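<instruction>
Derive C-alpha cells from the sequence
<data>
Labelled lines for chain and fold
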Amino acid sequence: MYIAMNRFRIAPGKEETFIEIWKNRETHLEDVPGFKSFQLLQGLATPEHTLFASHSIWESEEAFRNWTTSEAFRKAHANAKPASDVYLGPPKFEGFTAVLSQEQ
C-alpha cells in the first residue's frame, strides 16, 4: 500500500472556498488502476493558516506514479486555477509506503 499526501496551507477565512474547489473538481480516479481511496483532511487552524491534506491510498507506489503520468491525471488537473487569495504557497507532497498495517 502507498499513501500520497499533499499538505496545503490555506488563508484564514478561505477554508470553505478551498473545500468547494475540491468538491467541484473532476478527479477521474474511479477507473485508474491501483487507486483505492481519497480523503480531504482538515487540520489545525492558526491565526496564520489552516492546514489541509489530500490523502489518497494506492495499491503501490508504481500505481501512483503511473497515475501522475496518465491522461486521467492531466484531465484532473486541466482546470486547476490558481486561487492566490486561498493558497498560502504551493502544496507539499509526502509519499509513504506502508510497512505495518492493522485493520479491524
Remarks:
- The mean pLDDT is 91.
- Strands lie at 2-10, 35-45, 50-58, 92-97.
- Helices lie at 15-23, 61-68, 71-78.
- The first strand starts at residue 2 and ends at 10.
